Amino acid sequence: MVEISTSLLNANDENIIKTIYDLEVAKTDYFHIDVMDGKFVKNNTSERMRRYTESIKSVSNIPLDVHLMVNNVEEYVKDYIDMGGNCITFHIEACKSEMEVLKQISYIKQNNCKVGIAINPKTAIEKVYEYLPYIHKVLIMTVEPGNGGQELLTETLNKIAELNKFIYENGYEVDIQVDGGINEKNAKQVIEAGTNIIVAGSYIINSEDFGKAIKNVKNN
C-alpha cells in the first residue's frame, strides 16, 4: 500500500493551521518537513519549518516526516528529535565519512526515532547499500533538492528499481520514498519502480481538493 507524505514547503504561512487540518481530513499519512539551511541548498526554510512543526504538534497526531537538507546534520537532528519528529532523514552527501553516517543513524535510533538516508539525483544508489541493515528508509530525490514545483527527472526511475531489487534480494525491510515532481501523471511510474512512500507537495497544496489529489496519487 502506497503512503503519502505531504510536503508543506509551498504552504501559506497565514493559513498553515487550516492547511494542516484540511490535510488531516484528506488522510495524508505524514507531514513532510523540508528543512533547508541555505548552505546545503540555496534556500533557507529553517525558521518556517520550525513554526510549521510546532503548529502540527499543537493540533495533529499525524507523524512528522523530517527531511534535513543541511550541512550540520547533528545540530538539526537534535532539534527535531526534541520537537517530536517521527522519522528523520538526512543526506548522505552532507556527511564527510562512513563513520559520520553511522553516528547519525545510531543517535537517531537511540532516541526512539526512525531514520532515513536521502540521496541526490546524481549520487549513485550503491552509496546507500552498506547502511540498509541499520535504517528504516531511503529517500531518493527525483529532482535537485532546494525548490518545490520541479519536474521529475525520469532517469531517477532506474535508481528506484535498482534499490528495490537490491532490498528484495537481500531481505531487508526498508521503505523506498521518492521526493520531487510527483503528481497523478507520473505516480504510476514511481510506484511500479518500487516506491512505497511518495512525497507530494505543490501538486497537493495547490489543488482545490486535497483529498482528491491524494487519492489521485495513491490510486495509480
Short characterization:
By secondary structure, the protein is of the alpha/beta class. The protein contains 8 helices and 8 strands.
Index terms:
single chain; 220 residues; alpha/beta; TIM Barrel; 8-stranded parallel barrel; 20% strand
SSE diagram, text form:
Layout: E1 3-7, H1 16-25, E2 30-36, H2 46-59, E3 64-69, H3 73-82, E4 87-91, H4 98-110, E5 114-119, E6 137-141, H5 156-170, E7 175-179, H6 187-193, E8 197-200, H7 202-205, H8 210-218
Helix pairs in contact: 1-2, 5-6
- Which sheet architecture does the biggest sheet show? 8 strands, parallel, barrel
CATH superfamily: Aldolase class I
CATH topology: TIM Barrel
SSE sequence, one letter per element:
EHEHEHEHEEHEHEHH
The rounded Rg comes to 16 Å
Count of separate DSSP helical elements: 8
Total domains, how many? 1
Give start-end ranges of low-pLDDT stretches.
none
List the strand order in the largest sheet. 1-2-3-4-5-6-7-8
Count of DSSP E strands? 8
CATH architecture: Alpha-Beta Barrel
Percentage of residues assigned to helices: 25-40%
Distance between the termini: 11 Å
What spatial form do the alpha-carbon principal axes imply? globular
Q: Proportion of β residues?
A: 15-25%
What structural category characterises the helix and strand content? Answer: alpha/beta
CATH class: Alpha Beta
